[in-house]
């Protein structure tokens, strides 16, 4: 199991290299350069190994900002995953070091930047898109072979090296086979909204390999079309499009590519194309040559010293992908689907398997119980509870959205009145009614 080496940086000064900070090298090895990016818990710097002049990227994680054991477990899982992956199209982890206050990931420096930045300037030709897609599938297939599922594949997490070759990065939201439950599926709701597979939205569990293939399909569409296949300013509308597989290919796409995309973006994971089938597809195979490499070629690319204080937790531990948002621009969708999430000042979103009619009926009963209140219909599945309290008007709006065939999302918002009153009515009246808790209690009584 991988662990973290506790090291104290030496105080002895070292000569600075041009363009780098004139301070003592970290651990006597690395001089920090410019800041490449930052999140809530981590910053990434360009750095240089003073021993050989090699450029590296160093992700610095502040231990003091890691408030939970689960987050530390996730960091260690990311280390474990990256250490086991040695592929020419995957960013390499060279070593992991730590002091009492910080953890340092020393990574391969990929100086070409994100693929997203390149495609943002204009769509690619099919040949160029095919080249990048072939490299992506080579890397993703390798990950799956070793029981690793990325779960946040998108152009922002694909880098280009100086030769124009693709490198998959950011395994902060990845899962391993150890996390698969007894039903054979993963259940953590995570990913980036526009790239998330429809089965993740169904809340019934999913195959990690299948959702990665879906994301690869979205990426291929973006590369060749120059825009997202599923996109809408309204998040619920976008999710409905994803769930139904509603997209249109531009006229300039070849018929072979359109056919290929239809298999990648198949909303049924059972019939969606597999990695092996992708590699046999006529559109994909054109000019494809699987790179030959040997894992021993990468044997010196990562560090293996450890300390007993940072033992890797058992792979079956329960983890919340939300903790890893700071290391990825992806979104954990768990909060969106929490069946009993807590209100944030003026609004809350609940999810439940119930018909819109039943939900509205339950809210109607609540309105009858609130003194000086009435119910007003605002749209097909939208209502407002309006009333007077303490000499002032209050309005609570409620909208029901059909996310999937049997899953509804209920948005409850304060539209007038005090926040305190909104929270009181929500906690004591609306939440129990919407979730059917009052009915359950009466039946039990």
From TrEMBL:
Q: Which GO terms describe its molecular function?
A: ATP binding; protein serine/threonine kinase activity
Occurrences of domain Protein kinase (ranges): 30-284
Enumerate the spans annotated as NAF domain.
314-338
Stored Pfam families: NAF, Pkinase
Mind telling me which PROSITE patterns this protein's record contains?
Answer: NAF, PROTEIN_KINASE_ATP, PROTEIN_KINASE_DOM, PROTEIN_KINASE_ST
| SUPFAM superfamilies for this protein | Protein kinase-like (PK-like) (SSF56112)
Top EC group: transferase
Per UniProt, the keywords (alphabetical) are: ATP-binding, Kinase, Manganese, Nucleotide-binding, Serine/threonine-protein kinase, Transferase
| Reaction(s) this enzyme catalyzes, per UniProt | L-threonyl-[protein] + ATP = O-phospho-L-threonyl-[protein] + ADP + H(+); L-seryl-[protein] + ATP = O-phospho-L-seryl-[protein] + ADP + H(+)
- What protein name does the entry list? non-specific serine/threonine protein kinase
Annotated organism of origin: Oldenlandia corymbosa var. corymbosa
